[in-house]
User: What shape does this take?
Amino acid sequence: MHLGDSFTNLSRMVPACAELTGYEHMDASMIGDNSLSAAIRSGCLPLMARLDGGKIPSKGSVELRDFVPPAFRMHGSVEHLVEIKGVRGTMIRRRGSQRTWFTRSRSGEEVDASGHVDITADPGHEQSIGTKGFYRNFSVVFALGRNEMDTGGSVDDLVKNIRTMIEKHPAEQLRYVVTEIPAWQHEKIGTPKRAELDAWNGRLKWQFGDTFIEPFRWLIDHREKSFALAELRMTDDDRATGDNGVIPVSLTMDDRGHLSEAGAKACAAGMFEEFKRLHLV
Assistant: This one.
């Protein structure tokens, strides 16, 4: 089960890992996700909010306000399956908006929902990707942290939320890995932002020890093999970006540095090597 953000979600890394390992791999990543929202979506942390007007209408939508924990934020145009006061529906923040809405799945009676009410994320876990892997005791790849860095979060909260998910996973002896946070294209070695990134990754490595893996570093350090796996020819720009500790441009799909399908195959090979080192495959 891969919990992650757009680096996972926009690429083909999960099916590439499945092909290499021969195991079932579940993509539970979400664009814009951070460790707090991942912990809520996986059922490991509670979520509450106030409903505008204190009621769930008989049909349609109602705005959600004053979330608890207050740090919870939804990425624009992403939907969560949720249940509030026994009513199932979707929670969404529309692209470009700062407002979050609950839309019930079916019409029914109006329901009183005054004060802060509990929001159960992904209630039907066999059809909801956020909790399905947890309920089925899948091993977990925690590929989180990029959005915490980019939105002013803290590495302390990142570590705490990952620890919470590890501790509340139903498996008696959870098999998991925590991946390094990848660099954007402008975060070359020697820049202030890269120093911050390296400090965050250093903290994750210190906290999680051998379970901390570096598939992006493997991709960069083994560029010849990475490009052979990606079936691409390495350019001078690729060599230069790799020398600067950044994913070679030919393996990315945009100017930020999200992995292309070819890059995902190369990165999955790095992840596979780390799985083998930890005897997970």
